[in-house]
Amino acid sequence: MAKNLLIVESPAKAKTIAGYLGSDFTIESSYGHIRDLPKKQIGVDVKSDFEPQYVVAPDKEKIVRNLKKVSKGNTLWLASDGDREGEAIAWHVCQAIGADPKKAKRIVFHEITKPAIAEAMASPRVIDMKLVQAQQARRILDRLVGYELSPVLWRKVRAGTSAGRVQSVAVRLIVEREREIKVFQPKASFKLTATFGGKTEFTADLSKRIADKPTAKSWLKGVSGAKFKVADIEQKPGVRSPGAPFTTSTLQQEAGRRLGYSVRQTMTLAQRLYESGHITYMRTDSTSLSPIAVRAMAGLITKTHGKNYLQIRQFKTKSRLAQEAHEAIRPTNFKHLKAGSDARQSKLYDLIWRRTVASQMAAAKIDKTEVRIDISDKPEQFIASGEVLVFDGFIKVYGGGKEDKILPNLSIGQQLELVQILAQESYDRPPARYSEPSLVKKLEELGIGRPSTYAPTIGTIQDRQYVEKKDLVGTDQQASQLLLKGGKLSESTEMISLGSDKNKLVPTTLGEIVTDFLIKYFSEVVDYDFTARAEQELDEIAAGVVDWHKMLEKFYAKFHPLIAKSQKATRAEVTGAKTLGKDPKTGLPVIARYGRYGPVLQLGESGNDKDDKNGLAPRFAPLPEGISLDEISLELALPMFNLPRDVGKTADGQPISANIGRFGPYLKVGDMFVSIKDQNPLRINENEARQLIKDKEQANAQRVIADWGELKVLNGPYGPYITDGSVNIRVAKGQDPKKITEEQARIALKEGKPRSKPRKRK
After folding, report:
1. In what order do the strands lie in the sheet with 598-603?
2. 31 assigned to active site
3. Chain segment 714-731, per-residue pLDDT in tens
4. Could you tell me the pTM of the whole model?
5. Domain extents in the chain
6. What CATH topology corresponds to 248-362?
7. What CATH topology corresponds to 4-127?
8. Which helix (H) or strand (E) covers residue 511, if one does?
9. Top-level CATH class of 188-237+369-427?
10. Measured distance CA(350)–CA(352) in Å, rounded
11. List 31, 147, 274, 281, catalytic entry
């Protein structure tokens, strides 16, 4: 019978560890946090030194009963993750099952391998209460902000909104960046590129850009008969060094850049790789590697690529708050070139393997050449740059090398033959929008949040609809091209796209409204320096330098009075309500504001005597597609009150109306709705509407294979199926759906396995 009980966080980790321990151990899982603050009340006694009132979650009660039962008579070992959260989980387990934290054996390992487990078991310790207190202070701090501030947002903005220390700062960063982009005025300029001939053609760029077309034209005319000669050639060797092994932050950034993974997806996949024993712990801000790992890589690199590819390094961790006892994220066994239970895990493991091995490889060697070319009678020069990869070094494993740009053999004073000069008009770029990886990088630079908080933070601000991840379509702009060739100057134009973006974080109107409100009434909560200082104080609590009660007391003394102050704000002020003008027909005010379900236009005011006398309740309309509250005008708003609009009739006399709903513009005919996303509901005509309706009816007809009233055989996106409106059954393989009888359909519906419905997005 087992004499030891080992408790870990997840069943996957338990399964991996079970293979390394003998029959003397029973291994159970706490399934993450076993206790927390209550959901429906604050759960913190602010008058009694911020004492937390933890409860066991209803879905964890059965787990607690089981752990209590199996812990009797056994030595308790706690093997939750090796960060503050893991330390807190270990302490909560003791509290929940009635075990003495001072007697429990706490073990920590950063990889789930047999040697690491054996080493941890050989040197157990007690629970580190400083780490527990730091995690507890973070949880209480976040609860005070969220629980006291969120109800203010419910009343002033919209029900269901919330605020948080890190999430509100993240939204502020995105909002401020978007506003920088909106006020940015792109300036045009011309880049001049010359092509020189001879045995090998090559290109060179003018040393400066030219501001406008007239100046560019004049400049090109001035060099139509010019002579060109090589003024200087500079050759120098260069190196390109590998990056440090992955920390949580850099893994999230690189997985987003190279693999297109979201931050949340990256952490989920990394967690699975860790629990399966393939990589070391994935929440770390350290770039150090163990001597054992370095030796293993040295042997692998030397054997596979040769000694000249090996260069042992230890990278210095940039963050002064990093836990150097931890390692960077690395494979646990470098001989395993592939790992993971699915393709996504395999790709992430491959990225981690390559980055870690590359960190111990020699730098790539490059020869750089710069040629400066004089123009007769002109002070400017053309500059040609070439680069040749002499030794690939770490690039052999990690990639990222550029194609060689080789210049022909040239000598100083050599006369060059001009083929052509192209002057291409281009526009300045605004500041770049944040992607998930670049937002992680910015938060880390500011010292806001910790490795474990980035993924949930970025997920939360999207779930709360403060931010959207989207592709943005640019605006078409004409760009001029001037070409000097054979002494003749020609001109042409091309269309270029300005402002297009892919997979970027863009604030919603709700995100902007909440940010503006928080900046005005809770400036410290969204202040970058304040949030970073809070992280430092939490680190100082973990180090035993700061008392967690005093840290919370100091914060709450400043924060709580702001709640009362914010009550003065009116909802109209907070939601940015503005009167656009008056409706010429009724004389009623036209108001743009943020309503319960988003931006809305309102005709008339609630409670207005004039409205009441005329029997006119306020009317509401959506904003035009692509227009924000900041951009809306009376001219754009008035036509929206004409919706729903009578478009005409179908061939058989049914009325057709056009409107805008939750999912965009649509037509309505009887009980049928037809999406018209590419059409304007205010301008679509009867003929266009009839064609769209006809197309929809044809699509519906092709969808129906057989129809017996409620019982039908339909074509679906995943193949034919039988349905009675509530239960769906796939048509059996090899069975012709067109030959199914009503009786066969009823039998299949009664005996078959229901077809799972696609999961809806939140």
Report:
1. 578-582, 589-595, 598-603, 619-621
2. no
3. 888 788 899 988 888 888
4. 0.81
5. 4-127, 188-237+369-427, 248-362, 577-641, 643-703, 709-751
6. Topoisomerase I; domain 4 (1.10.290)
7. Rossmann fold (3.40.50)
8. helix 509-521
9. mainly beta
10. 5
11. 281
